[in-house]
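Re: your question from the hallway

Yes, I did run it. Sequences:
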Amino acid sequence: MGDPSSDPQAAEDGGAVPGRISSTGTPAWVKAFGIVMAAVVLLIVVMLLTGHGPSRHMHGGLADHPRPSADAEGRGHP
Amino acid sequence: MTIPPRLRKPMLIVHVFSSVGWAGAVIAFLALALVGLTSQDIQTVRAVDLGAVSITRMAIVPLALASLLTGVVQSLGTRWGLLRHYWVLFKLLLNILAVAIVLLYSQTLETFRALAVDPGSDLGEVRAPTFVLHSVLALLLLLVATVLAVYKPRAMTPYGHRKQRELRRTELGS
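Structure:
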């Protein structure tokens, strides 16, 4: 069996060696990262479900300024 | 199936180039967004909105998809695997999340594009603080992914441990 530390792929990757056995159990950084990611995803889902979208980024909403017609777009487009 | 050694570095180059290019495109987007946020000239802000749409469609989306695709190919084609190491798994999830947000954000961009070409819209309506917020958040996400890629913190998933045991059993038996 080849020494994982001499794995040329590991040298290319320049980082931790894929073949080395890490300790069992989930490291703290993994748990913390997982919790943060789950919270971010949950936040995004909640924002989408509660109507976070294009209309929230406008002062007046599209109702005050309907989408321009094709002619208006042609004149207004730089 | 692993990537042949002669293809490994070219594949890595494509992945790094597309990922760094993605970050660069977001930085360009942020620069435009800051101009749009601070300018008092409505024509400038309209131009910013249109420029933001172009940067997103022509640079950010293609590069984000290329980064995701090449990252998956890189992982599957090397001994790192896609699900064996937490740093790879988290990078994958971050990449998928970022691509999803970029695609969803296209709706917001379309709204501002429509306002930008509407001669009746005023400065307050075409100005888009959301561009600054989302681009800063995107850069933070890409920074986290970069840190993971460089440091490759050691931690294998349960699946990774299982595959490693199988590999060692195979190697000991041969």
